[in-house]
Structure formats: structure tokens, C-alpha cells
Amino acid sequence: MIPYVREIDIDYGRCDVVSPLIRRVTAKNPGPFTYMGTGTYIVGHGEVAVIDPGPDLADHLAAIQAAIPGERVSHILITHHHLDHSPLARPLAAITGARVYGRAVTTAHAEDEIVLEAGNDVFVPDEPVAGGEVFSGPGWTLEAIHTPGHTSNHICYALKEENALFAGDHIMGWSTTVITPPDGDMGDYLRSLETVRARGFSTVWPTHGPPIREVDPFIGAYIAHRKDRERQILERLAAGDVRIKAMVPTIYAAVDPRLYGPAAHSVLAQVIELVKTGQVLCDGPPGLDSDYRLAG
Question: pTM here?
């Protein structure tokens, strides 16, 4: 079982000091994919970096400005292009003069991509980030880590001075991460989780929800959960369910049926990986309406 962490004190627009180097301002955009809203992180003092400015909301832009009076924004860092993470980067950059850093997305979206997770197709950073880059200011150092899976362009940022990770949507304490092909990739995601786990971070700061303090066991449970989903999919195929939409109600029996859409996309991502590894066969390109069968 994943040891979810869901308790968080939210007051929209308030600036919370959450560590010696980190402040958080939460946007008022709660929902099934954003939990209580987008948490924008401000790193440092005097000269600061802003991570995931969030959705293009005037109130949130004003709250970020109010949180940094007299301070200079030197970097605007984006974890990925989704609409709850990146659109406010341009208005904030116009006000502060800061450069926007991130990784452009190159994979086409699925026609039936989940609406609330839809990407910002116009997101193009001022400075492309591949992974391995280091950004710094007075008393703080951030390293970019390419963590594809949730999206192909997902970047996490490690704060050296606190052995902490700003995880975007790669790891969330309140929920698992939706993987939506073709931009999302389950194999990439599992490999990225192992990459992060190997770093031994003390704290993970997701863009949505509270921090994760017991990092290694949490990531271990995250990985085990995906492996268990794989087992369930293979069981459903053995039972005669040849289509993803037939598997979902059984695999996600404890989940609100309104979430079957995103659940189906995550199953598709898992099935695509099973096809890649030769455990499952499919006639034609894998899709939500394709027929699948066990190999052998």
C-alpha cells in the first residue's frame, strides 16, 4: 500500500514559509488532478528562483508578487508543460525580467487526452533544459534532473542545500501520477522513479499537496503499486478481458467511476510497456480500443 500524505494547510494566496530556503504560494485551482491547487515554490532570499508559476490566474500572479517584495526573480523553472504548471511563466517573466527554463514538449497529444491534464502546446522556454544543468543564487543551488514518464519533457529540480527535490507531478503524496500516452511513457516513468530513488533525497516537494518526508519507502511503494497493476492487467487478459475499457471497472473497483477515463489511460501506458517487453500482443498500434492477448 502507498503511504499517502494528504494533510496540508491551504489558504489561497498566502505565502507559507515551509523550510529555511523554501516558500510556497498555492493557486486556487483545486480539482481531481491538482488536489488542493498548484503549489508554486519560491527558493532563496533576495535573489530567488520560482518553480512552476502555475495556471494563468491574475490572483495567483498577484500573490506571487506579494510574496517577494523587493526581491529579484533570477530564474523561472518549469517542471513540464501542463496547464496547471506553465502558463503563468510568461506573465511573471514580463513583470520580473527573469528567463524561463524548461524542456519543450515534442510528442503529439492523444486526440482523447484527458482535458484537465491537457498540455500547453505553446510552451517554449527561453532556455532549454536537458537535465544536469545547475542554477544558483545566494545560498541556493538547484540541479535539473530529466524525469520523463508523466510527460516526455518532465524535469525535477534538486535543492542541494536541503537535499530536497521539487518533483512536479513525478511523485505526489496524495495520489499516483497519471501516465497518458503517447507523451507519457510507463517504462520511462519507472526508470525515472529509480533514478530519483537512488539520489536519497530527504524531502520531496510535489507541485500538488504536502511534502513527502519518508522518501525511499514512499517511492518503493509507488514502484510496487505499478508492478501490482501490471499483474492485475495480466490477470484480466488471462480471464478474457481483451480491451482496456473492460479491465478498468475490475482493476479500479474501489475508484470513483468518474475517474475511469484517466485510469484507462494509465492502463494503456502499462499495456504499451507490456507489448514492448513482449508479454502482451496486439494487432496493430496499441490504443484504448485495441484488442490484446497474452503472448504465448
Answer: 0.94
Mark 209-245 as b/e (b = at least 16 C-beta within 10 Å): bbbbeebeebbeebeeebeebbebbbebbeeebeebe
What is the C-alpha to C-alpha distance for residues 127 and 117, in angstroms, rounded to an integer?
24
Cα angle, residue 143 at apex, residues 214 and 96 outer, rounded to 5°: 110
* Sign of the dihedral through C-alpha 111, 113, 118, 123: negative
Question: What's the pLDDT score for residue 258?
Answer: 83
CA angle 184, 75, 156 (to 5 degrees): 30
Mean pLDDT, to the nearest integer, of 259-285? 93
- DSSP line for 221-287: HHHHHHHHHHHHHHHHHHTT--SHHHHHHHHTTTS-GGGHHHHHHHHHHHHHHHHHTTSEEESSS--
Query: What is the distance between the alpha carbons of residues 81 and 292, in angstroms, rounded to a whole number?
Result: 32
pLDDT reported for residue 114: 46
- Identify residue 30 by its one-letter amino acid code: P
Pairing of strands 72-77, 99-102: parallel
- Residues for the chain: how many in total? 296
Degrees to nearest 5, angle at CA 102 with 201 and 10: 60
Helix, coil or strand: residue 294: strand
- Rounded to whole angstroms, the Cα distance separating 81 from 104 reads 7
